[in-house]
């Protein structure tokens, strides 16, 4: 298993993803139920004087997994919007994409010298 980093860093990453999601709505992310749940859960599972706090490690692992999911979804949507096809293109547009030009007919279609 890869190193998870600190729980504070994971919490900051989750809150950053909440800010990205709520940026479109204009509502402050601190007013959401997700924010209140995350902060409450991380406060409830702080490191104690025990040598091994299994619940805290389990919460941290789940939070890191969820953070990875949120980041991946956001990046997937951004890539999809950037590179998604725009439907059928004309022959001229397709030729222009690869740097080619179609031959020009001076008299139009069916022109004969």
TrEMBL record:
Residues 94-113 are annotated as: Disordered. Plays a role in the assembly/stability of the mitochondrial membrane ATP synthase (F(1)F(0) ATP synthase or Complex V). One of its GO terms (cellular component) is mitochondrion. Belongs to the FMC1 family. Signal peptide: none annotated. It comes from the Eukaryota. The gene is FMC1. It comes from Equus asinus (Donkey). This is Protein FMC1 homolog. InterPro entries: FMC1_homologue.
């Amino acid at each position: 298993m890869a190193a998870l980093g600190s729980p504070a860093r994971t919490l900051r990453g989750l809150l950053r993803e909440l800010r990205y999601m709520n940026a479109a709505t204009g509502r402050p992310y601190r007013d959401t139920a997700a924010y209140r749940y995350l902060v409450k859960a991380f406060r409830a599972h702080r490191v104690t004087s025990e040598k091994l706090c299994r619940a805290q490690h389990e919460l941290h692992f789940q939070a890191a997994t969820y953070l990875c999911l949120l980041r991946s979804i956001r990046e997937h949507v951004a890539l999809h919007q950037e590179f998604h096809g725009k439907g059928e293109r004309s022959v001229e547009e397709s030729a222009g994409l690869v740097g080619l030009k179609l031959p020009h007919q001076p008299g139009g279609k069916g022109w004969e010298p």
